Amino acid sequence: MTERPREQHTPTAGGELGTTAAVQHRRVEPDESRRASRHWWDLDADNYVAEHAADLGDVDLLWCPEGLRESDVQLLGPTPDLVGTTILEVGCGTAPVSRWLQSVGANAVGFDLSGGMLRHALRLNAGTGIDVPLVQADACRFPFADASFDFVVSAFGAIAFVARPEEVMAEAARVLRPGGRFVFSTNHPIRWIFPDSPSARDLQVHTSYFDPRAYLEVDDNDRPTYIETHRTIGQRVRDIVAAGLVLDDIIEPEWVPGRQVVWGQWSSDRAKWIPGTAIYAAHKPAR
């Protein structure tokens, strides 16, 4: 999971790491976003784990900063029904999701672009005794055979960081077996229009919901160091349908009562007014 800074007067993703010289908004190419994302997550892996590991857990499926956990909401269906299924996690990061799926009896595999994040995933595999298979790969080019998984899942992994998220949808459809399901969470697009602040006082629109340009942070040589892309709800639905999937649901989670966490722009204060996450559930039609 990650948060999306928007304006130069608000904190940038690379502010603490000293990688950001300027902010840009423009269209990006796939190779450009791939290089920037790999560089960023390798560089930020240690900081990210130090800041968020307690909330993400070592063996858990946390769908979003609002606090929805699969053990409570069962978006993949009844947990006992996952036993023996094959599940691919896209953008697994440190892989707590894949380890949780493995712990309830599924056969999970995780992949991520960042070697830095996978280094932590391997460490946690050893620490938990749950040895999830891990692969370093690009989210637009799944290194897996057609029709090889019952589920594809992603909890804020990869989809917001690729130039062409429709390619992720197509790859998910390709590797799913007929009747298989794709469930993923990502930034709710309404977040795009507000400053990156957890305070409800800052809910002042400053950019268009329909602005298709990516958000970039660049270094002193004008090289992108962090890229995040945007899709409206309608665009996301069209990407899913164009991949040959059937959309079953869009969930806009409310804040879990009593949860005392601030995660970038996500907070209980702001969650009273707008959604921060969208969870999409789709399936591949049976033949």
UniProtKB/TrEMBL annotation:
Database matches in InterPro entries: Methyltransf_11, SAM-dependent_MTases_sf
Residues covered by the Methyltransferase type domain: 88-184
Protein name: Methyltransferase family protein
Annotated Basic and acidic residues bias: 26-36
Species of the source: Antricoccus suffuscus
Gene3D superfamilies: Vaccinia Virus protein VP39 (3.40.50.150)
Molecular function terms from GO: S-adenosylmethionine-dependent methyltransferase activity
Pfam families tied to this protein: Methyltransf_11
Keywords: Methyltransferase, Transferase
Stretches for region Disordered: 1-36
Methyltransferase recorded as keyword: yes
GO biological process: methylation
Record's keyword annotation contains rRNA-binding: no
